[in-house]
Design goal:
Layout lengths: L9 E7 L2 E6 L12 H4 L1 H24 L7 E3 L5 E5 L5 E5 L1 H11 L6 E4 H8 L3 E11 L3 E11 H4 L19
Parallel strand pairs: 3-6
Antiparallel strand pairs: 1-2, 4-5, 6-8, 7-8
Cofactor: Mg(2+)
Pfam family, one: Guanylate_cyc
GO molecular function: adenylate cyclase activity; ATP binding; metal ion binding
Length: about 180
């Protein structure tokens, strides 16, 4: 998927076990905090589109292979620290609150869902993404955060019934 031109600004950072970390907005040399929202956060919308495409691709694989694999994803936005680390085996990595919260969104989310914090949901709503409020989730080191599940693009949901992500049993959360 990352080879598709529409995902040109998304970079795979690493995989650890079954966790795949990707990022966007790392190469924007023209960043200006006063940019219009749609310009400033276009890379976040691209990352969200990538996540939805991953989910759709896995659904198609499941249909063809008679499996029921589900992804659990977390998306967040904000500043990060990144660089090459390791003397013997150098590799690029990233750290910081933004990365930690994204990781917590993944780990406290539900299989088959994409979970975000409130600020990320508000930004992505500007790009016509639709969310369902999950509620407060206890996040280690952050306290209770208001979280949302991404339902999809408004245009894709108009003609199809929307299944609530809250219909299933709750997922245990971590405490702070």
């Amino acid at each position: 998927l990352l080879e598709q031109p529409r995902f040109k600004d998304i970079i795979k950072i690493k995989t650890i076990g079954s966790t795949y970390m990707a990022a966007s907005g790392l190469t924007d040399d023209n960043y200006n905090p006063n940019m219009p929202v749609k310009e400033k956060w276009a890379h976040l919308a691209q990352l969200t589109e990538f996540a939805l495409t991953l989910k759709e691709t896995l659904t198609n694989i499941n249909k063809e292979s008679f499996n029921n694999f589900l992804l659990r994803m977390g998306i967040n936005q904000g500043p990060i620290t990144a660089g090459v680390i390791g003397a013997r085996k150098p590799h690029y990595d990233m750290w910081g609150n933004t990365v930690n919260v994204s990781s917590r969104m993944e780990s406290t989310g539900k299989a088959g869902c994409i979970q975000v914090v409130e600020e990320t949901a508000r930004i992505l709503e500007e790009f016509d993404y639709v969310f369902e409020q999950r509620g407060l989730v206890a996040v280690k080191g952050k306290g209770n955060l208001m979280t949302y599940y991404l339902l999809g693009r408004k245009s894709d949901l108009k003609n199809s019934p929307v299944k609530s992500n809250l219909d299933d049993p709750p997922v245990p959360t971590t405490s702070s």
